[in-house]
Design a protein that fits this description.
The protein has nine helices and eight strands. By secondary structure, the chain is α/β, with parallel strands linked by helices. Strand 6, helix 6 and strand 7 form a beta-alpha-beta unit. The longest helix is centred in the N-terminal third of the chain and has 20 residues. The protein binds zinc ion.
């Protein structure tokens, strides 16, 4: 089996996870910038984090022959502090030129607040000005439908943004259709309980097909499973999916989206 892990917070994971992913056929891992589990006290904390994502983590992954890429932003949870967000946004352009940076993400909304929306629009503007791909986090549970709608409106409101260059992540049964119908890519996050379980994700694939869809583990410092993509591939096989169709979903689809950034490449 071969697969791409398009969304994993490896700074929170142990070295064994890298070994297990490579052993399972992982060809590349991509790490969106994220909340650390606590609020950072200043923009300097983000400067260090961006250095970790663009310098240290690619080296750690390279020890196992795994290409590591990242996305940069201030996450929605910390975007409530607009002054901090402005300072972090000002830091990002100097990092965008680095060889493993794929774009702006994971941006989006958490509580769907006015300040979060303002900072989301600033990120979208930065992506448009710097011709970057966009990776969007959508809120959890009861805020998800409204948050997804607000996010799509913000993206569609900027005429410079092309939907085929944006992935809307953490879609579920009630949000996947509006994302795909609007021409965006959709990501399904495989968590043991919340977001999409493997069984629910495969139900969605049964229903919507596999065009412009990818799977990810979004493994981080919380309850999450770094091997959830290959494990879901096994479950797809059990449910009668052909090897070609599984390869399309876990390898070819993420490769097609991510290759829109010329810096993206796979394990040689
Ligand atoms: Zn994430």
């Amino acid at each position: 089996m071969r697969y791409i892990e398009p969304h994993a917070h490896m700074v929170s994971r142990v070295t064994d996870d890298y070994q297990d992913m490579v052993t399972s056929g992982c060809q590349a891992v991509c790490e969106p910038a994220f909340w650390a589990g606590f609020d950072r006290s200043s923009a300097e904390g983000f400067r260090d984090y961006f250095a970790q994502l663009t310098e240290h983590e690619p080296k750690r992954a390279a020890k196992f022959g795994l290409p590591h890429f990242c996305w940069l932003c201030i996450n929605p949870k910390e975007s409530e502090d607009v002054k901090l967000a402005e300072e972090v946004l000002a830091l990002i352009p100097r990092f965008l030129e680095r060889p493993s940076v794929l774009g702006i993400g994971e941006i989006g909304l958490n509580k769907n607040s006015r300040n979060e929306l303002k900072v989301l629009e600033r990120h979208v503007d930065l992506a448009a000005r710097c011709d970057q791909l966009i990776l969007v986090h959508t809120p959890h549970l009861e805020d998800k439908f409204k948050g997804t709608r607000l996010t799509l409106d913000a993206l569609r409101g900027d005429r410079r943004i092309r939907p085929e260059r944006c992935i809307i992540d953490h879609v579920e049964e009630h949000t996947v259709r509006m994302v795909l119908d609007a021409g965006f890519w959709a990501g399904m996050t495989l968590y043991p309980e919340t977001k999409c379980t493997p069984a629910r994700a495969i139900d969605i694939l049964d229903r919507y097909g596999q065009e412009r869809l990818w799977l990810n583990s979004a493994c981080d410092w919380g309850v999450s499973v770094p091997l959830s993509v290959p494990r879901t591939a096994l479950e797809m096989r059990r449910r009668g999916y052909s090897a070609e169709r599984i390869d399309q979903i876990v390898y070819q689809n993420p490769r097609a989206f991510l290759s829109q950034c010329p810096k993206f490449h796979l394990a040689s």
